[in-house]
Specification:
By secondary structure, this protein is of the alpha/beta class. The protein has 11 helices and 8 strands. It is globular. The structure holds pyridoxine-5'-phosphate.
Length: 249
Amino acid sequence: MESIKKLRLGVNIDHVATVRNARGSAYPDPVRAAIIAQEAGADGITAHLREDRRHIVDQDIVSIIKAINIPLNFEMAATEEMQKIALAHEPYAVCIVPEKREERTTEGGLDVVKEEKKLAHFITPLRDKGSRVSIFIAADENQIKAASRIGAQVVELHTGAYCDLHYEKSFEEKEAELTRLKDMAALAHSLGLEVHAGHGLTYETVTPIAELPEVVELNIGHFLIGESIFSGLKEAILKMRELMDKARL
Ligand code: PXP
């Protein structure tokens, strides 16, 4: 295999906006979090504009793009509305995620197999505008092959099940899920897809994922924002970065 690339860290700042929106206040400001993440060495900022705007809102996307000089990874559902917004902003990257993800966590990510034609159609203009298109999927052979067929450049493997199993102390099942992630990262790489991973990662769970040689980017949010209550955001990111770098040695 070609030399192992440095592992990038995308910091997801959605949950700063969750706290802000809980009170309908102007703070805490996700843009400020994005700037701190950039200063702490994040390689990108990830923000998910949900259809119900429960955390990030449209103006946040505008402000974040203006404020940062690292790439924005714009997470979005495969809807016409979101496509329009992405085409208007031309973010460095878009990551297509399930529309009703909370109902599908057990299944993992997007069902590309089921929606292959629609998704192929959907991502073409985004690619044409220069955004790098990533598809958030479970570590599943058929989903990866379908993502490759529709012309995605990247697959982001859903690590949520692996993280849940870790905290449920289902260690045998966790190992099985890790093996699946490892095999599927290798498959995706062999098909020419760039491999990312994310969801639910913490200090305790990040190392085995960061060790997967084909994975070049992790996107981490909820844990980092939660941890920043205790250590500050910069410290939380630096510690995660350190664990990722150590895993890569
Ligand atoms: N990757 C994708 C595609 C996601 O949707 C999310 C959550 O928004 C993450 C990574 C980050 O997950 P977490 O917030 O659990 O770290």
